[in-house]
Amino acid sequence: MRFLCVVGTRPEAIKLAPVILELARHSHVTTLCSGQHGKLAQEPLAWFGIRPDDQITVGSRSKTLATRTGAMLAPMERMITKHRPDIVIAQGDTTTVLVSALTAFYLGVPFAHVEAGLRTGNLQAPFPEEFNRVAADRLARWYFCPTRGAVAHLRAERVDASRIFLTGNTGIDALRLALERLAPAPETDGRRRQILLTAHRRENQGRRMEAICQAVIALVKEFDDVEFTIPVHPSPAVRSTFEALRVAHDRVRLLPPLTYERLVLEMARSHLILTDSGGIQEEAPFLKKPVLVLRDVTERPEAIELGVARLIGTETAAIVGAVRELLTDEAAYAKMAAGGSPYGDGYAAERIAAAFGLCQRPVSAVG
Q1: Is 113 one of the annotated active-site residues of the chain?
Q2: With 80 as the cut, is the pLDDT of residue 363 above it?
Q3: Which end of the chain has fewer CB atoms < 10 Å from its terminal CB, N or C?
């Protein structure tokens, strides 16, 4: 059995790395980088010891969603034809996933979707990821779902139950492997509470991103023991907004995009996390870190239902109020920091391999 695993963005690289490693133990795997994130996607692959076998180069002029999608289609067709896989695998909800699923469909090659079934029910949020995921799921033959809720969505859409597999999220596999390899996070000096903030989503850019920045400024002024760590996404729209914070306060650390291992260490040493990232919403509960989600809707409601994450939007007053509560109310903080991972036990990749008959399926999928 020959697999073509397609990686486009950094989060995809992190979440597909355990799948690539597990499948390669049993079968032939070709790893293809689509060029969507370039070197940013290759860094975590290298950290996991994976060297891409091939790569698509997307021209610098391909900046809009339409031009980027169009620029990937013909090269993806050439790559699938060149490597002749039995199965194409992609993860998540990016342009790369959409192009991989569509091209595999055109060529008659079965497509397997890792992290299938997530839904908000709103094609505008997250945009365009909700559409990408729905479209990829319409074209898939295998559906690897991170949660029971994702399974329920697919069943409601009348997907054949024999093609749906509850695996847990492969991002937790990556986090488990990282924690096994990394030294423990250094202890903080106790004088400052670290808040990790990441924000990059397309729907949050502009006025909403400015409101997030205003909340940061207000919080460092109100709490003299708080320090923000902000890895700034390379998008010019995001970078230009956050760079205005550099002069706002000396307790706001603006950093370039972090390597995967550095991000794991920053999450581990943080007091709490603010994010609009899907992956961090999954990772923070596993690390027992309260996470405040800077979005109006999320396709990952399980942590919110469990009480270890909270959806707060992007209005300045809402962000300040939610953070203030966790900084001043020990009981509220302790309740959210109690932990509990609704996204799996860190062995999703083995269940994916088992679905293809390559190994024995582990028993438990979701915590």
Answers
A1: no
A2: no
A3: N
